Amino acid sequence: MAETEMSPVLQEPRQVVRKFQARPQHEGDGAVVRRSIGRFELKYFDPFLVLDEFSVAAPAGFPDHPHRGFETVTYMLEGAVTHEDFEGHKGTIKAGDLQWMTAGRGIVHSEMPAGQGTSKGLQLWVNLSSKNKMIEPRYQEIQSNDIASTAKNGVDVRVIAGESMGVQSPVYTRTPTMYLDFKLRQSAHLRQPIPPTWNSFVYVLEGEGVFCSERSAPVGPHHLLLLGQGDGLEVWNRSSKPLRFVLIGGEPLGEPVAQLGPFVMNTEEEIDRTIDDYQYFVNGFEKAKYWRSAGMVSP
Ligand code: FJE
Ligand code: FE
């Protein structure tokens, strides 16, 4: 295959098959999210359950809540979020930082804005295959300075997961996933390979980009573009401002999905068992019995 690191040749560039505008909605306790994946019109884009562009300022937030059966990936854009879980694991995710949390059999935690002002970021929910749903919870946390990145020919990339422009992320993805944060300066052009069997999408954060076809209309912030079949993405920035977007892809699991809010299993029976486990503090939820986050303890 004729290919250089900077401009890999694409045999079959992917096209945009659906476009969504993510409008603000209320979630958690007074928080606002622009949900693109996970809303009614796009319940699931295998293996992705939710993509939220969130915006939250104190006293709003996401107080104590459980997860089971998938991963939450929190990537901060502005401000910071403090998290705290029922095992005593806590920390602050700051602008540019990443938290890749594998909830597995169970996590109960809080996610609240830290400091003054509005905290913004992306939260992606990646489904786990049946064989991984009940694994031990695990965190992979990377601070902004340690996120793999490179820049060439007017294209900057931060590699959250997977590989781009010769740079690889250290994050281990149980469900094979790529997650790239691109910035294209004026007149920059990008070709990014994507494994042909994977589902993939673009979410625009800033500026305007021409995606997939040189003749298509430019797309601005808060838009989700679902990509069709092919071996990669082609993008042009023909505007005078920088274009920032994320490209996310994953290997579809091809399994049935049974979801009740923050519990995502394969069957309704497993969901019923999960409700029991959570209610009776068993099978991974033992520590939820006496735990409350600092914010939930009455003065
Ligand atoms: C959740 C409602 C929620 N998007 N983005 C129901 F809001 C949540 C939840 C979040 C969330 C948290 C952050 Cl930090 C960022 C988010 C939804 O916590 F889990 C359920 N079940
Ligand atoms: Fe959560």
Automatic annotation (TrEMBL):
<keyword id="KW-0479">Metal-binding</keyword>
<keyword id="KW-0539">Nucleus</keyword>
<keyword id="KW-0408">Iron</keyword>
<dbReference type="InterPro" id="IPR003829">
    <property type="entry name" value="Pirin_N_dom"/>
</dbReference>
<dbReference type="GO" id="GO:0046872">
    <property type="term" value="F:metal ion binding"/>
</dbReference>
<feature type="domain" description="Pirin C-terminal">
    <location>
        <begin position="179"/>
        <end position="281"/>
    </location>
</feature>
<feature type="binding site">
    <location>
        <position position="111"/>
    </location>
    <ligand>
        <name>Fe cation</name>
    </ligand>
</feature>
<dbReference type="InterPro" id="IPR012093">
    <property type="entry name" value="Pirin"/>
</dbReference>
<comment type="similarity">
    <text>Belongs to the pirin family.</text>
</comment>
<dbReference type="InterPro" id="IPR014710">
    <property type="entry name" value="RmlC-like_jellyroll"/>
</dbReference>
<dbReference type="InterPro" id="IPR008778">
    <property type="entry name" value="Pirin_C_dom"/>
</dbReference>
<feature type="domain" description="Pirin N-terminal">
    <location>
        <begin position="33"/>
        <end position="126"/>
    </location>
</feature>
<dbReference type="Pfam" id="PF02678">
    <property type="entry name" value="Pirin"/>
</dbReference>
<dbReference type="InterPro" id="IPR011051">
    <property type="entry name" value="RmlC_Cupin_sf"/>
</dbReference>
<protein>
    <submittedName>
        <fullName>Pirin-like protein</fullName>
    </submittedName>
</protein>
<feature type="binding site">
    <location>
        <position position="109"/>
    </location>
    <ligand>
        <name>Fe cation</name>
    </ligand>
</feature>
<dbReference type="GO" id="GO:0005634">
    <property type="term" value="C:nucleus"/>
</dbReference>
<feature type="binding site">
    <location>
        <position position="67"/>
    </location>
    <ligand>
        <name>Fe cation</name>
    </ligand>
</feature>
<dbReference type="Pfam" id="PF05726">
    <property type="entry name" value="Pirin_C"/>
</dbReference>
<feature type="binding site">
    <location>
        <position position="65"/>
    </location>
    <ligand>
        <name>Fe cation</name>
    </ligand>
</feature>
